[in-house]
Amino acid sequence: DQSAQAQRVSPPFIVNGRVERPGDRDMYQFDGKEGEEVVIEVVARRLDSPLDAAIKVTDFAGKVVAFSDDVEDLGSGVNTHHADSYIRTKLPAAGLYYVQLADAQHNGGEEYAYRLRISQPQPGFALRVVPSHIEPRSNAWGAASVHVIRKDGFTEPISLSLKDPSGMFEMGRAVLSGTQTMVRVSIKAKTGEIQTPVPLTIEGVASNKNQKITGIAVPAEDRMQAFLWRHLVPAQEFAALILPPPPPPPGSTPPPKPAPAGKPEPSKVASVPKPQPPKPGPPAVAKP
Fewer CB within 10 A of the end CB, N or C, for the chain? Predict the structure, then answer.
């Protein structure tokens, strides 16, 4: 509970802990460098813990460097309270720093568990594709939205591509720029009607400091709570059906029916008229 009793750690560091009683505080200390960027993250509510985490970073003199309470995470599914904490900050000077972790409601107990990470930024991303089911018409385009959850300050562009083992679909070019959080993608059905769902996969590829980063878009449904919090709730799979082409508009001429298999339609050749014999003239009359 006190700075003198803080557990000394060396980043990168991950620990599983517990706020054991109401009003309890867990303390950690680490050495930092001037200008060094560090990330302190608590995962608790996303692990179904009742902990409403609050974290505070102070220097050796007790001055507050950073503080965090609730941080929204669109990828947390049906979690109705974004109660986990996250800090990314640059240390103002070299020296000893303290991380204090507690429950914001001053609760505690055996079930108030958490996972704490103290490290340098580990840039990356996670993808969600919404909705989890599309139904384009035959030889037409359907649409979906791909959301990106950027981690630890990741700002690089992400190229998206479609993985379709069936070969029945194709996706137009799509890129998430470094400032975008969502992009619409177009997916075309290249065959006729199919009534059985076809599983599809959207993959994202990016680079960070010459390191290739890949991620698969998790299928999800977009839900809203109390007109405020949005949740991308994970679904089982991303799949597509192909609907038949739309009926022709009223008054249009229907397309010709194809010839039955094995009976090719006879070709139409212009008929040439047969030559006719000359018509007989009037009978000859003898002159006197």
Answer: C
